[in-house]
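Supplementary Methods S3. Input chains for the assembly prediction are listed below.
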Amino acid sequence: MAHDKIWVLAEHAAAGPTSTTLELLTEARQLGGTVEAVAWGPDTASVAAALGEYGATTVYDVGDIGAALPGAPVSGAIAALVQSGNRPDILLVPASYDGRDVAGRLSVKLDRPLLTNVTDLVDGDSVSSQHPLFGGTMIVTARFSGEGPQIFVIRAKSFAAEPAGGGPANVVSAPAPEVGATNGAVVKDRHAEERSGPKLDEASIVVSGGRGLGAAEHYALIEELAKLLGGAAGASRAIVDAGWVPYSYQVGQTGKTVKPTVYLACGISGATQHMVGMKGSKHIIAINKDQDAPIFSIADLGIVGDVHKVLPALIEALKSRS
Amino acid sequence: MNIVVCVKQIPDPAAPPSLRPDTQTLDRSGKLILDDSDSYGVEMALQLAGGEGDEVTLVSMAPNAETSGLRTALAMGAAKAILISDDALAGSDALGTAKVLAAAIRRVSPDLVIAATESTDGYTGTVPVQVAELLGLPSITFAKSVAIEGSTVKVERQTEAGYDEVESPLPALVTVTAGVVEPRYPSFKGIMAAKSKPVDVLAVSDLGLDASEVGAVGARQAITDVSAAESRGSGEIVVDEGDGAQRVVAFLEELKVI
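Predicted structure tokens for the full assembly:
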């Protein structure tokens, strides 16, 4: 199956396209053919230069969707393009909150299946996707059959973003059609959880805490250690669900994907959900009192011990160095 | 208030997972339990449907007629269940699954549909939104809190940076994260009552769906290979004898990050 036209669902904020968007544009160039983007927002033209620099020749502009969640209107706009005869062979979608919503609705509108949770693409006569299974210990390779756009939903940091030096993408208006009741969900207010230090998904050192910390107040050890190392503090889903730390700290399947130089897992057993979000770290240090914890199977250095003893000693040792 | 909760019965995550050698899909032939992720949706629904005449209906799909996971949710307090069970469903992809669930939900005409953000065993995380689109409903995914005011559902939705306050008119579909509420444990009375609660077992043909749209036949994607991931190689695992912190410091020094 030839793949000459590749589209990328391009998410952007005020600061420009998201990093996953740039990663997907870079990968789209590797797959060859024409690379185009679909974007939405009040000022899509402002990202035409950045999208072009990473290889998009055209950006289809859905325009301002107001306070609506993107799922319904953006999938509607893409479906309208496809139905007008302008259709991609492949659509790459970031596995973000809104990306998954758009892909799910588009799947139904086009009556095409999705391949989700993709961490790599393999080029060939047709494109295959790779998916981690069982906490990343197994890799499943899959591909589509049948006619119609092939929609891959791809995890953050699956590819490295590299600019191609192209000129600004040509902005083509592609407004959303009327999508009726499905467009009913509106954002009334937004809340950002401020945090100091480097961003979790960009930090070169990440220190994460889990249930083994025993109580919410012990998370302060994680934050102190992260600060001493100039890194970011993260968390397992277990303690986010327990309300110890905000969701934005979560590393894992439904949280952030991180690939730091050093990942320090403290009191984290290593559930599948967590491992897929940090397995790509260059070096992994684990501290856990259960020597059978799965996290030790991927650790470069594992300390079988009590985080309540090891962490304070580690903090003291680091303080005495500075 | 009529609420449907989509639930999934999965192999016990505590048991080692395996793939079927013939199809390379997850082996779901053994005993199935209620996906832990779904217990939050069931609890949320029970809390929202506390009024007179309110009712919670479970909708689930399974390749065999397994009901033990559904009984758990019925014991928590759901009134009844619809189980779509048909040999033709084996090997369904997410879109095929969504078509089956949507057709079953349509029979109930709910005010609100609740699902987990993703299952613990497959975690494609797209089925609920596909169901919403098939039913023509608005959807709000990744809810960390859900409230109903009149004919509006109000949700705090997780975002990259924090959360958004999102509202939608009913009927609507909401996916909830683990932690949205603390699921209750079924009481003894609840467990006894669950045994006599109705579980309506339907086949694909009962839903007016074409068997060619579902199951392995309807799936337009195929697994071509399953292999072991490149191993990270086992590192050095040491028992802390009071020197654990020093070992970490030495490791960080070696990496020149401190």
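The domain at 2-218 of chain B is CATH 3.40.50.620 (Rossmann fold). Helices of chain B lie at 36-48, 68-76, 94-106, 127-135, 188-194, 215-218, 244-254.
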